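pinning this so it doesn't scroll away 📌
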Amino acid sequence: MFGIVLLASSLACLVTAVGIYVINKYSSWGNKNVAQFMSFAAGVLITVSLIHILPEAYAMNDRAPMFVLIGFMGLYISNRILDRYRFHGHEESQMTIGLIPMIGIGIHSFIDGVIYSVTFNVSVFTGILAAIGMVLHEFPEGIVTFLLLRRGGFSRKKAIIWALIAAAFSTPLGTLVSYPFIETIDRGTLGLMLAFSAGALLYVGATHLLPAVEQEGRRYTVFSLLAGILVAVVIVLTKG
């Protein structure tokens, strides 16, 4: 069973890595359309958090709303700390554009790895259903993470490395860390982890990405946002 679980999470890692490779190869096109990617990602993250992760977390643990708040405020406070104590000046403060989404996506990807362990432990069929939905969003997730890191001032090499760590490698890492303790991770604890993830992703999507899209001033980004919402709905229906 462990081999199947690790294979599924490694597939998600691979799909994310392919997204990073593709956008790195066509970086000029990616930078030109970064606003569209950000609004698309915002639509996916906000929708998945509100209509899937949060309700599922609440069904597992009635304390989930408190952990949504903790996840949301945790990323907000992290953002303020980075701005105040690590970076100074306009150009350097732009690095938080990449760092904060990277933190949120990293948390979410790690928990994805935990979910693989839990769902495959229920049954192979349940695990496969969950894997289908999660893999669908890995490709754009890798693209967006890389673009935001580049937009934030990271070099191409560092953006690739950090995007791989946060969006790709964190998923099999979550599987490797959680699988030995899978019997001790009860439904209620997983619900709190999911709620924290929902809060973090809501912050990234609604408070971080959407204002950045508005600053870009590009036309038609609302259509990218709607496309992200549509994709998220498909992901949720696939998982269901």
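📌 and the second one:
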Amino acid sequence: MTATLPVADTSPSDLGSRGSARRRVLALASAEIRLLLRNRTAAVNSLLGPALLLGSVAAIAVSNGMELDGPSFIAKAIGITLILVAYYNLVTTFVARREELVLQRMRTGELTDGEILLGTAVPTLLVTVVQVVVVGVGVVALGRWSAPVDVVLPLLALLGGGALMVVLAAASTSVTRTVEAAQFTTLPLVLAATLFSGLLVPLSGFPERVAEAFRFLPLTPVIELSQLGLVGKTWSGQAVGTAGAWAAAPVPLAVLAGWLVVGSVVARRVFRWAPRR
């Protein structure tokens, strides 16, 4: 988990007021990346925090005589980085920018609301992807890599999960008055994601009806798609090939799409661009 990032010193004219939407987003994202790199504590915590957690999970597995399954480990890395890096850091970043009136100031320029949120989120999303890649490289270096059943499904999980974390973080800011309060307001989703989404405890370990209900939690479809593509296992533990993985994919894909729609609608309604007075 990262410390609060310093507020960007940017004006609407600096963000490509005459350029395209892509140029404006890239300009804002570039400013946010520079802020992240200047804050060494935030940068180091963003990179090392989840990596240390994953290392602890691997050490516990090995100490208990369990074989380290590389593909399953990468699937866990996707879920952990999304919830602990993307979601939590985006909540703190959005709140920090709001409380310093940066979001309100940027809205007076040509940046649209969506461009402001996307540009602000890009550095955190990049860190998330980098961490997953680093874990993948580590798995290969340890000789624990095996060919995935399908590469598209985990990519959809990572991209769709990243987009979902952005809208969920934006919605969570409505109940987060300060950056410090984020550690409490994000806790319900973090706990639900880590305990009941198949991330640390497989859904097959729960009673069937309970597990089926847990499949509709926000992070569960991300874990399901990652497991289907990387490991070739369904939420119930059944082994499948490529055809079977895609046959089992419509439900988690639909749940993920549903959360994206719901999250976007809620975020649009409750997101505050200025501090409460």
